[in-house]
Amino acid sequence: CLIQRKKLKYAVIKWAMSTHRVFRTHISSPTNYTVKCVETGCPGNVHGHVPKYDIHWVVTIIVPHNCVRKNLLVKHPNLTSSLIAQLMYT
Ligand SMILES: [Zn+2]
Q1: What is the pLDDT of residues 71-82, one digit of tens each?
Q2: Ligand 1 mean position to 10 CA, how many Å?
Q3: For the segment 26-63, what is each residue's pLDDT rounded down to a tens digit?
Q4: What is the distance in angstroms between the CA of the first residue and the CA of the last residue of the chain?
Q5: CA of 61 to the centre of ligand 1 (A)
Q6: Cα(44)–Cα(14) distance, rounded to whole angstroms?
């Protein structure tokens, strides 16, 4: 799918929240964006990049988690107040 960088980040955060997992940004450059699950040994990750001569992001890798889902993750560390505001507008 073709999306903008900002939308890619929101999509990733929505994904993290919906799966009740926490990720950390692994690569965040102008043309590459990769996040990985914080759990050691879990292959869960999402990767997006901008192809040469293109301006839109392409999500190329979505690896599902094999880690145990954490219950009662009330305050998601990846969710900031500005992102909450953005999510509410979209
Ligand atoms: Zn995981």
Answers
A1: 655 666 776 776
A2: 18
A3: 999 989 999 999 998 999 999 999 998 888 888 888 89
A4: 18
A5: 15
A6: 15
